[in-house]
């Protein structure tokens, strides 16, 4: 249902652009104006792409080229994966990578489960305690409880230096509950009534009817949650003192932003020269970007509609 | 069909026809308008005699009916209560002399003592407040219009494909963490970064961008633009795609040039969205890029880079002045709510819709 609407909108949009172009009587922009627009857009895109190009290239470059260029290269002449081999052969980065993957996977799964269930239980107007619970959730959109009390709560719960402190506090976002609830409420009541007459219980209605019809919104919210967990930085600063439990973002800060010296155990890659410091730093950066790059195409297909509907409804 | 449902509900087995009706939380949009026929029927029915919502079904009946539904919501609700409401109550430490080893409840009350830094204008606090307001002001004046301009540019592109490609590229930085963005900026523009290496190799003067308090505001502003300007266009592009085509046609008949169309048709049509986002921005005036600034504060020092959030963090979590920090955080939160409500009121007075309508 949703898909059809989106597709229609898209087709309409393409049509609009063409129509706007051909509105009778409006003079077409001249070549200089069109050229200027193109150039502005090109510069904007280059400003985004060039840094990434430099980061990836430097991570692949060898010592000689890095030295010649004075630090960073825009294109690796003799690309090699030594830097990646060095940081992934155990040690700080590998461990942080595992921590981050674990937090992201577990956090996203738990978060989606809780948000979906809460949204579903709030999707029926007039059910028992519907209004008080809905208001309880909505109210959290208007205030943030504050850093200090939140920190003290987490400490009181004994979650300091526990992975749970990175998962639980941001697990259920009111905004996501509201968006998902709005989707559930769009599902025609006849479908649910029919299932009920066929003898389906609440759980069956949820898993067989409601969830399959809401795949798109679940995917969007899940992907956004995953990105948020992967990128979370300050929660780890607050709650994790034990460096063994550091997620990747903290390692990134220490070695790439604060430029702490990076000790690599070169024993595993005996016979090779230690890759240049910049290559190591850029390789850590690239590794932290890989998951984002992997989900980006999916995100992109969905976010326009997910965010839009969220923006309008919220 | 209707009678059948009525019979079942009369028998008390399923008194909930029409429960799927939309609760107009937002303002109902046109989404799915074409498929809503069945829903309308359900709504009429729900309002009829069999509509057993509200007072007619007793609490016990409704509880029995909905207990499983309630149960499903429990885990999520618990998390909300635990990490939103418990800390909210925990704000009482703003009025206490909090001693970690006694606990929140047994610590002595001190009234408004913790608010002295605000009331008497403690220099460190005033510095943090000033920096926050300056940064916010710059972000509203400089950063806020960028996505609007970019959206107008994208919207006016003749080639649909070019527009799509540009969008994919420009949205990308939004999904990077602040650590990544700061790292990239530092390695591109830092003293040993790409730009300065290039300048040095040509014997040109280098630019001291990082670690330079005078450049800090420029630096963080450009980082915000780099990261979120592209993403910010989404909502404006959506608004632009909803502008009534006939307005353009009518203005073309009246002989309007494209610039006049921009000024008299396009911008007025997206004014509501602009006002809405401006209100939300105003509510956040005391919150400026916390992670971003925390990451870069060391390099320029607290004079230039202390904002309210970092003040709360360093004073409270690091320095142990729990009560004072909580007081500052509490006031900051309250002011934020007041600002949103106030800005919304002003928007109503100006005839705009605002965040919520009455």
Shape type of chain B: globular
Main β-sheet of chain A, in a few words?
A: none
Specify the CATH architecture of the largest domain in chain A: Orthogonal Bundle
Using DSSP, what is the number of strands of chain A?
0
Helical element count of chain B? 17
Mean pLDDT across the residues of chain B is 81
Q: Gap between N and C termini of chain A, in Å?
A: 21 Å
Overall number of strands of chain B: 0
CATH superfamily of the largest domain in chain B: MetI-like
Segments of chain A where pLDDT lies below 50 for 5+ residues?
A: 1-14, 308-314
Helix content class of chain B = 55-70%
Bin the strand percentage of chain B: under 5%
Low-confidence stretches of chain B: 1-54
- By secondary-structure content and strand pairing, the structural class of chain B works out as mainly alpha
Distance between the termini of chain B: 38 Å
Which topology of the largest domain in chain A does CATH recognise? MetI-like fold
Compute the CA-based radius of gyration of chain A: 25 Å
Classified in CATH, the superfamily of the largest domain in chain A is MetI-like
Largest sheet of chain B: none
What pattern of helices and strands is seen along the backbone of chain A? HHHHHHHHHHHHHHH
What spatial form of chain A do the alpha-carbon principal axes imply? globular
Topology:
The complex is a heterodimer of chains A (314) and B (358).
Chain A: H1 2-21, H2 31-60, H3 63-69, H4 82-88, H5 92-121, H6 130-139, H7 147-156, H8 164-167, H9 174-186, H10 189-197, H11 202-213, H12 215-231, H13 234-239, H14 248-257, H15 277-313
Helix pairs in contact in A: 2-15, 4-15, 5-9, 5-12, 5-14, 9-15, 10-11, 12-15, 14-15
Chain B: H1 2-10, H2 37-47, H3 59-90, H4 116-119, H5 123-143, H6 145-155, H7 160-171, H8 178-189, H9 194-201, H10 216-241, H11 245-253, H12 258-269, H13 271-283, H14 290-300, H15 302-305, H16 308-318, H17 322-349
């Amino acid at each position: 249902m949703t898909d059809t609407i989106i597709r229609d909108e898209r087709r309409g949009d393409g049509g609009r652009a063409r129509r706007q172009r051909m509105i009778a009587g409006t003079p077409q922009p001249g070549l200089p104006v069109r050229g200027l627009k193109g150039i502005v857009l090109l510069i904007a895109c280059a400003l985004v792409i060039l840094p990434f190009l430099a980061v990836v290239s430097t991570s692949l470059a060898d010592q000689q080229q890095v030295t010649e260029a004075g630090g960073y290269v825009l294109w690796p002449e003799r690309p090699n994966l030594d830097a990646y081999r060095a940081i992934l052969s155990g040690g700080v980065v590998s461990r942080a990578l595992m921590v981050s993957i674990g937090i992201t996977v577990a956090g996203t799964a738990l978060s989606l489960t809780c948000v979906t269930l809460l949204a579903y239980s709030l999707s029926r107007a007039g059910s028992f305690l519907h209004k008080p619970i809905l208001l309880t959730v909505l109210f959290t959109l208007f205030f943030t409880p504050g850093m200090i009390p939140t920190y003290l709560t987490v400490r009181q719960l004994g979650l300091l230096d526990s992975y749970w402190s990175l998962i639980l506090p941001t697990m259920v976002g009111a905004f996501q509950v509201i968006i998902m609830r709005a989707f559930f409420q769009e599902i025609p009541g006849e479908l649910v009534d029919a299932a009920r007459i066929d003898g389906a219980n609440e759980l069956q209605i949820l898993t067989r009817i409601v969830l399959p019809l809401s795949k798109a919104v679940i995917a969007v919210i899940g992907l956004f949650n995953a990105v948020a967990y992967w990128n979370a930085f300050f929660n780890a600063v607050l709650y994790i003192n034990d460096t063994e439990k550091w997620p990747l973002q903290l390692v990134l800060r220490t070695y790439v932003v604060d430029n702490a010296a990076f000790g690599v155990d070169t024993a595993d890659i005996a016979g090779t020269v230690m890759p240049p410091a910049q290559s190591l730093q850029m390789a850590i950066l690239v590794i932290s970007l890989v998951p984002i790059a992997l989900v980006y195409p999916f995100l992109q297909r969905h976010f326009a509609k997910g965010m839009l509907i969220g923006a309008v409804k919220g | 069909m209707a009678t059948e449902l009525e019979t079942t509900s009369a028998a008390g087995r399923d008194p909930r026809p029409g429960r799927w009706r939309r609760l107009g939380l937002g303002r109902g949009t046109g989404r799915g308008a074409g498929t809503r026929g069945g829903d309308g029927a359900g709504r009429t029915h729900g309002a009829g005699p069999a509509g057993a919502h509200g007072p007619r079904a007793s609490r016990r009946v409704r509880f029995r009916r909905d207990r499983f539904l309630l149960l499903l919501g429990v885990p999520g609700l618990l998390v909300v209560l635990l990490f939103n409401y418990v800390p909210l109550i925990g704000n009482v430490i703003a009025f206490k002399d909090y001693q970690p080893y006694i606990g929140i409840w047994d610590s002595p009350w001190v009234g408004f003592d913790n608010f002295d830094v605000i009331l008497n204008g403690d220099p460190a606090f005033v510095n943090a407040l000033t920096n926050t307001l300056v940064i916010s002001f710059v972000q509203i004046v400089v950063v806020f219009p960028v996505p609007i301009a970019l959206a107008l540019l994208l919207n006016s592109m003749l080639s649909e494909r070019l527009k799509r490609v540009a969008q994919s590229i420009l949205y990308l930085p939004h999904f990077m963490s602040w650590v990544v963005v700061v790292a990239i900026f530092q390695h591109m523009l830092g003293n040993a970064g790409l730009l300065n290496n290039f300048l040095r190799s040509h014997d040109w003067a280098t630019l001291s961008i990082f670690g330079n308090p005078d450049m800090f505001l420029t630096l963080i502003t450009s980082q915000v633009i780099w990261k979120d300007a592209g993403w910010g266009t989404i909502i404006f592009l959506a608004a632009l795609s909803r502008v009534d085509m006939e307005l353009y046609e009518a203005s073309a008949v009246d002989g309007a040039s494209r610039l006049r169309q921009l000024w008299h048709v396009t911008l007025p049509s997206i004014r509501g969205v602009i006002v809405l986002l401006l209100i939300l921005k105003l509510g956040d005036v005391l919150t400026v890029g916390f992670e971003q600034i925390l990451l870069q504060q060391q390099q320029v020092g607290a004079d230039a880079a202390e904002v309210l959030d970092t003040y709360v963090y360093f004073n409270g979590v690091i320095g142990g002045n729990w009560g004072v920090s909580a007081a500052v955080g509490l006031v900051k939160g309250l002011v934020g709510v007041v600002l949103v409500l106030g800005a919304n009121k002003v928007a109503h007075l100006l005839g705009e819709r605002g965040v919520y309508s009455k």
